[in-house]
Amino acid sequence: MPPDVGKFLSASSHRRPEKFTKNHVLHHFQDELMKRGSADRHQSLDPAVMSGVCPTEQSPEGCGHETSAEQNPSTTDSHGNFCVCSVMLVVYVVNSTADTPAVYVVFLRKVPAFKPLEPVLMSAKCSPLRLRKKLCPSLLSLLTLSVLLLVSIKYSFISESADFASLSVHQPIHKHAINCAAIYDLDPAEVGKSLIIRRKKMVEDKDKSLIQLTRNCSSFIKIRGYDEVCVSEEEKVFPLAYSLVVHKYAWMVERLIRAAYSPNNIYCIHYDQKSSAEFTAAMEGLARCLPNVFIASKRESVFYASISRLKADLNCLSDLMGSEVRWRYVINLCGQDFPLKSNIELVSELKLLNGSNMLETSRPSELKKQRFSFHFELKDASFEYLKLPVKTEQKKPPPPHGIEMFIGNAYFVLSREFVEHLHSSPVMKDFLEWSEDTYSPDEHFWATLVRLPGVPGEVPRSQADITDLMSKTRLVKWHYLEESLYPPCTGEHVRSVCIFGAAEMHWLLNYGHWFANKFDPKVDPVLIQCLEEKLEEKRKLFQSGTSLTCGWG
């Protein structure tokens, strides 16, 4: 079947694709052929392709009725575009996603169309004014084409099914048939296609499948392409360290590591002690198969906004300091983060920091001061967090050593020298102890310590606030700031934070940040897939023409 046929009608209807057997296709064709006069014209064209339809008030009989030319004259829309009722041969492509072989469904449908769209949408149809005289296209021609298409199904269905069976073994992550370059360019039709994919109930990639895949490490490494990751000389002499604090969605964690992966980097995984047995087994499998990935030696039961979140990162930092890898910067991530730069791009930008640190650090508002001015107690909660810090009336003493407080977020990019200094600093230990009973201490701990006089990479206290949009560590969209600081979220919101959608891909990759939060394959799987593809393209582009070492060689 010519490839342009599928493209021509990939958006010819917003009717949802279904899974069809060959017999279903034949019955569908026969049924639609019999009912061709009763099709509702508003269901014939995708709104993303057609800017309007024949207005009901201007065409009272509509295209959906068998009327003569005299009974149903051609009309014009409000812009003067000539509107005709026509017969179209519609080819539905029941798409070739990873779990559904491509099947072509053919039937007749009458549709309205504006004359300017004729070159694109009306090449296989004709006006009813000429239908009686010329019978264009004739029923015989249509039936002949249909038979040819159905014959193609007989052979393509079997071969594509076999291909899928092979693919499912070798590609554990569901891949969607989407043009990521078009998504990046905000092509309306392709973005619309991603919305259709989002509405489908996709089979979730289970933690168990990652456990099974990592039982054979050589197979896992090959299937996921870790052995194909190459390192330039620039990257080789500038290794990075990662602290990943995670608790669910094993495949998302693996995809995050894979997207940020370089054989000369080092990755510490801290999984929550409350995580499921399958999730922890999947994380252990990753650490067993990848020589530069390890599990934190000490793990916390992490509770939202408590000291345990901060301690999880500190546990990884302590282990990373003992690593043989002489990393230059350390970056902390959570399970719903994703990189916006390839490793070689990130290395190039981190080198420009020249030893300084990158994180949000601002003066606190009076409301934010409440978080560390009063004693908080961790108490049971009746919803997803299980436990939450609750404010008491007990006031806290001021921070030790005359420390001036700053606030930020939990995300950081810290130099090795800064971490080494803190590792042996009594001031840091005293400040950590003082922060034990505060609310969300990870959001003031790093922002304050980086302002201490004399620390490596110091941000002077006199320096102006560094906001989250100024710090490149993490790009986050807050619901209440959308349309004032950044465009609206095209995904969903959770606790006022945007879970990004595919239509934000161009914005994400061009804003200038290194990582972003939040991503969720259950909200928009297309965006994550397209970011993976784009990062791989950028890695190869920036590494082209350089001396490379691939795998762990």
Question: Can you walk me through this structure?
Answer:
This protein is of the alpha+beta class and 553 residues long. The chain folds into two domains: 3-167, no CATH class; 230-470, Alpha-Beta Complex (Spore Coat Polysaccharide Biosynthesis Protein SpsA, Chain A), CATH 3.90.550. 37% of the residues lie in helices and 16% in strands. It has 20 helices and 17 strands. It has a five-stranded mixed β-sheet with strand order 8-7-6-9-13, sandwiched between helices. Strands 1, 2, 3 and 4 form a four-stranded antiparallel β-sheet that branches. A two-stranded antiparallel sheet has the order 5-17. Helix 12 links the parallel strand 7 (266-271) and strand 8 (293-295). 38% of the residues are buried.
Structure characteristics:
four-stranded antiparallel sheet, 2 domains, alpha+beta, 553 residues, 17 strands
Shape: globular
Side-by-side strand order of the widest sheet: 8-7-6-9-13
How many strands? Answer: 17
CATH A-level architecture of the largest domain:
Alpha-Beta Complex
Tell me the Rg in angstroms.
Answer: 29 Å
**Weakly predicted, low-confidence segments:** 1-30, 32-138, 147-169
Structurally, the number of domains stands at 2
Task: Assign a percent range to the helix content.
Answer: 25-40%
The secondary-structure class comes to: alpha+beta
> CATH first level of the largest domain: which class?
Alpha Beta
- Termini Cα gap: 45 Å
Main beta sheet: strand number and arrangement? 5 strands, mixed
CATH topology of the largest domain: Spore Coat Polysaccharide Biosynthesis Protein SpsA, Chain A
* Count of DSSP-assigned helices: 20
Mean pLDDT: 78
